[in-house]
Amino acid sequence: MASLQFNELAYTNLNEFIYGHAKKPVVCSNGMVIGGGTVYPEVNLTLPTMLINEETMPKVLSQYEEMIHGICSKAHELLSPGIIIEIELLPPCTFNPEWGVDVTKVVKGVMNEYYTKFGLKSLLRMTVVDIREGKTLTHMYKGEHWDNVIKTFRGCAEAGADFLAIESIGGKHLHDEAVMNCDLPRALFSLGVVGCRDMAALWDEIVKISAETNCIPSGDTACGFANTSMVMAHKNFIPKVFAAIDRVMCAVRTLVAVERGAIGPDKDCGYEGVYLKAITGTPISMEGRTAACAHSSSVGNIAACLADCWSNESVENVRLLGGMAPTVYIEQLIYDCRIMNVASARGSALEMRDILSESDRMYDPQAYVLDPGVVLRISQEIVKGKTHFERTKIAASATIKELRSAFQDGLVQLDAKELKYLDIFEKQLKTIPNDEAEFTQFMIKNSTLDKFDPAKYDFNFDAVAK
Amino acid sequence: MASLQFNELAYTNLNEFIYGHAKKPVVCSNGMVIGGGTVYPEVNLTLPTMLINEETMPKVLSQYEEMIHGICSKAHELLSPGIIIEIELLPPCTFNPEWGVDVTKVVKGVMNEYYTKFGLKSLLRMTVVDIREGKTLTHMYKGEHWDNVIKTFRGCAEAGADFLAIESIGGKHLHDEAVMNCDLPRALFSLGVVGCRDMAALWDEIVKISAETNCIPSGDTACGFANTSMVMAHKNFIPKVFAAIDRVMCAVRTLVAVERGAIGPDKDCGYEGVYLKAITGTPISMEGRTAACAHSSSVGNIAACLADCWSNESVENVRLLGGMAPTVYIEQLIYDCRIMNVASARGSALEMRDILSESDRMYDPQAYVLDPGVVLRISQEIVKGKTHFERTKIAASATIKELRSAFQDGLVQLDAKELKYLDIFEKQLKTIPNDEAEFTQFMIKNSTLDKFDPAKYDFNFDAVAK
Amino acid sequence: MFDFTGLSNAVIEGDNDQVQAKVKEAISANVDPLAIINQGLIGGMNVVGQRFKVNDMFVPEVLMSARSMNAGIELVKPLLAGGEMTNRGTVIIGTVKGDLHDIGKSLVGMMLECSGFKVIDLGVDISPEEFIAAIKENDGKILALSALLTTTMLSMKSTIEECVEQGMRNDIKVIIGGAPISQEFSDQIGADGYAGDAAAAVELVAKLLQ
Amino acid sequence: MFDFTGLSNAVIEGDNDQVQAKVKEAISANVDPLAIINQGLIGGMNVVGQRFKVNDMFVPEVLMSARSMNAGIELVKPLLAGGEMTNRGTVIIGTVKGDLHDIGKSLVGMMLECSGFKVIDLGVDISPEEFIAAIKENDGKILALSALLTTTMLSMKSTIEECVEQGMRNDIKVIIGGAPISQEFSDQIGADGYAGDAAAAVELVAKLLQ
Ligand SMILES: [Zn+2]
Ligand SMILES: [Zn+2]
Ligand SMILES: [Zn+2]
User: Fold this and answer.
1) Domain boundaries in chain C?
2) Cβ–Cβ of D153/A49 closer than 8 Å?
């Protein structure tokens, strides 16, 4: 399938690069426009402690029904101009596509009910879990795992999903190893070579299904990649600068979805979405302080600077004093969005954006690389690369350069250990040859089959060599 | 004891009436200044499902310890300039003052540990539960109930509490009846006559204990009063305008704490605190969107306009994906405060305040009466009253007038049923005589002893008649 | 046949005087006393219950209607033979030991009364023994327990256990509610059901008494 | 007496070449092979574990140290009589059935190895039967189960139940961890303990094996 080329940025003016507005807004059939000026809440929810199997499926479905009722009822009460609901399917609901379809039907049914009765506008993002790993995987693009992923996408789309999304994992095992060892070249191989190729194959299929089912191919996130680094850095297991560099490198991989036809909104947990927005103009979902229910964060406010949807990442259906947790979180998201949207209406959106950025930027390199100005500068470098490999490498070097000068200018705090690792990563980058084929050959030789088996990826070495 | 008189407002300039700044900041011994320019997070927490008794007390204490560890550790990690922790004691910990003292010791112990090890500044607000009700109550100011309340205050203060607070309930049963029947005169009697007298007696004692223990008498809230109305209105059980009027009437009662010597910060769940701040310059804690864990709200953002501390109201120690709920909520509060404080640092505090107000003001009369401009206007009327009775009556009539003109100007949405009740309440107010003694006599005659027993309050009818 | 519309409407309006006038009119017209109550008074009250449920009436209005209905019933009562008045079943309701929260529980009681159940409201801070005594004394069919604190909800469990010990667990259905309560907790402690609000409580009681 | 400081420091530095040089030096000096391992190599690794625990070292540094330690051990091994090498006990670790999360579990394994335990890491998506087989095969003393999904944590329960059925529950201590796991859940399913992070897991294992 044809691939779009993004060789210049969608934004040239920092003052246009802001939450709620995307250069290529996504216009939905119910009138909601993502990136058209309004930030919408996107609530994410999951099951409480319970098993999913044939027997428990009725209970599973009634859990989803209860959660969506609570959410829609609160959104109506608080006069939300519209909401997005994301369901990240759990593994059994992708291994058994019909279960994923049943979940979609139940969820969409309640959403439709609230639209009909109360006029509440809502959109459903179905995120299929990428089950292409584990002991029984035989191949990434054929066999049971692939077939179930594809069947689930099609089934969810036919059952009423508005957006299709995934957190794809091609090359993830290489990346896990890279994170544990802070091995930037290996991360680059995982993301810029293996991951980007996998994204192309996968997203061609998702875009095709979307076209056939009148659904919107929304986007991917590097959840299994940069978010692993983020969590590890948050626990002080690895340097924060690794996580920051890794985040920007992931942008090139996540961007492939759009190159193959995805149009957004990009998924919440992909903080690298800000780069996607800068380069392609695609609207994005982001998560920050109000996702503390799912994970602690060093980017609680700065993550909102460029958000077109604002999400809580994930919350279980447990009872809090104020009600069930998903209902509690849609309320918080709605109020968060009101602040941003009212600021826009008053002409203070830029000031609000800058407040959100200044809130966090200084304290963590992972926050610093989400600053809108920084995003535009680094993006400008990334698009100079001609291949995904080149772009990912540039992403890493440009981020290192940016962090170094930010530290010198007193714009970001980095302790001695972090600075030492900036040097280490710079040296690591220098060992990477300019020739992708040469690099690939080296990396494959130095990887075990359980981390990366080229055969399972139809990894055509000649194609790389070209 | 002497009573302070507040016959004019602490604020004459709307531009000075803003979050983080109070005319009479509270300077604490650890260097934190409440109302001195910085909004601090105030986290509130409670036990998960468990019994409190002699046997379970070790478990109870270890629950508190775990919660405070989680909170302090997160606050340190996120570089909070300081935090406030509020413990609302549960009934058994006031019925058994030594248990309340043990809780205080454990909590303060962990707070001290984080100050010593990491320099984390924190302040402890101990809120004693007002147990003066129930079948066994013999008298409001003597006997077992009163003695336990007083012992608990003293014990907590001696065990290290920085602030003493209470949500006192004198006259509450009258008010419950008033809410159920939307009976404004009865609410006025409960708040402006019985409640204010009870506050004076109770707060004289709390102020005395504070002076003797070098503790800060912080404040009271009308939680059992206006928050009952708020919850009832939120469920559409009573008109929202009742809850709005009731809220402003409660201000006169809550203010009595300051008249008797409390200096703040006033407690979070007393939204009427904004009137207290207007009239006395006392700093206040407020709760809004990030208290959705405890209750849904129509004032999620506007509640922050004038907040000097920002609270989550209450959250149980249950596990969410991102960690224990109290830890999750301190994170959210810290990020909320960063937004407000960074806006201040950038000179955008007023714009931020106005965004927060505009976010909610229009949609609910309860939100409208929290708008800073509205607060100053109504407060200006309230202070014209010479007695608590008069002031409470003025609070009601000024609020009705304000809501009516706001509706006419298109500044607040009120449906036909709400408007009808504005008329009803106006008529109810007109039936109230100007003479407090006459009014009191009438109300007592029309109340049953289970709702209000003058003897238990030492309610001296002659004193009223004077 | 007597037209009860006017009487029902007076109940819906909560117009005490009008209700009494219409009841007297019906009595003068020799209308069956039970019909006055069931079709006229309770008929009106059923509408009130429905309208409250869909947020079309406020609590004070419901209370006024209930008061006017009761005033009407008082006028008819002397004409009834003993024991002729029936209800849909007796509900014993109260807030459990250690908990002083009143209003939520009262609202549930009010709604149950509107729906034709007999309600014995024991108040707040009620021990298992007090609940048991009230069930016995009033031939209660439903025990409705309220709790608003995470630290008192376990008193619901003790109350249910007391029912078991007294050998009366099979004779009574136990329902629970309050802010910290969930269906899961209800299952855990072996209650017969959980209701999230007053309207749901009425439905639950009706279902359990079928 | 041989001075092990240089060797230990080389392990702490994760300097492979230096470790091998120092080990060879010690061997040439006829130092007791077990002392080279315990005092020199494992001694260094213990410092690494402590420093990691207080956030003074990163994971990649710990892994480098572990690799250099192992390289040193390989040099010494031929000098040891069979069975002479001991460890503090064997831990069987894995992510439970249906769950593919790998890294958290690997980190716990890494920290346990640093602390002198033998670790058998079965990987992810491990069935109760596979866990049981591994315990038997390796004489496991601790079974460490990981889960990151609310919908797979109940597999921990099935695994414990399988241990009971196989009559081996008393021979093994079961510890659990992962984002949705709490002490309460651990108590519920009858595990022997819960650890919130890798360092806590090491302490827990040490305590349970005392
Ligand atoms: Zn994700
Ligand atoms: Zn998500
Ligand atoms: Zn309160």
Assistant:
1) 5-79, 90-208
2) yes
CATH topology (fold) of D5-79: 1.10.1240
pLDDT string in tens for chain A (466-residue length): 578 899 999 999 999 999 999 999 999 999 999 999 999 999 999 999 999 999 999 999 999 999 999 999 999 999 999 999 999 999 999 999 999 999 999 999 999 999 999 999 999 999 999 999 988 999 999 999 999 999 999 999 999 999 999 999 999 999 999 999 999 999 999 999 999 999 999 999 999 999 999 999 999 999 999 999 999 999 999 999 999 999 999 999 999 999 999 999 999 999 999 999 999 999 999 999 999 999 999 999 999 999 999 999 999 999 999 999 999 999 999 999 999 999 999 999 999 999 999 999 999 999 999 999 999 999 999 999 999 999 999 999 999 999 999 999 999 999 999 999 999 999 999 999 999 999 999 999 999 999 999 999 998 766 665 5
Ligand 1 centroid to Cα of residue A221, in Å, is 7
D106 lies within 8 A of chain A by CB: yes
Q: How many Å lie between the alpha carbon of B461 and the closest alpha carbon of chain A?
A: 41
| Cα–ligand 3 centroid distance for B45 (angstroms) | 12
Q: Does residue A6 form part of some domain?
A: no
Helix A372-382 crosses helix A388-408 at what angle (to 10 degrees)? 140
Number of domains, chain B: 1
Q: Confirm whether A33 is domain-assigned.
A: yes
State the Cα–Cα distance between residues A323 and B451, nearest whole angstrom.
31
- What is D90-208's CATH number? 3.40.50.280
Q: Which residue from D minimizes the CA distance to B66?
A: D183
Report yes or no: B229 at the A interface, CB cutoff 8 Å: no
What three-state secondary structure class fits A239? coil
Residue A392: what residue type? T
- Taking CB atoms and an 8 Å cut-off, how many pairs form between chains B and C? 60
Point out the ligand nearest to the CA of residue A220. Answer: 1
A59 has a chain C CB within 8 A of its CB? no
Q: What are the backbone dihedrals phi and psi of residue A125, each rounded to the nearest 5 degrees, phi first?
A: -100, 120
Residue B89 lies in a domain: yes
For chain A positions 408-437, those within 8 Å of chain D (CB to CB) are: 417
Contact: chain C with chain D (3+ CB pairs below 8 Å): no
B321 touches chain D (CB under 8 A): yes
> How many angstroms does the Cα of residue A456 sit away from the middle of ligand 1?
24
Contact A229, A240 (CB under 8 A): no
Instruction: Answer for the pair C48, C57: CB distance below 8 angstroms, yes or no.
Output: yes
> pTM (2 decimals)?
0.95
What is the 3-state secondary structure of C95-134?
Answer: EECCCCCCHHHHHHHHHHHHCCCEEEECCCCECHHHHHHH
Closest-CA residue to A37 (of A21, A22, A25): A21
Q: Is residue A2 part of a domain?
A: no
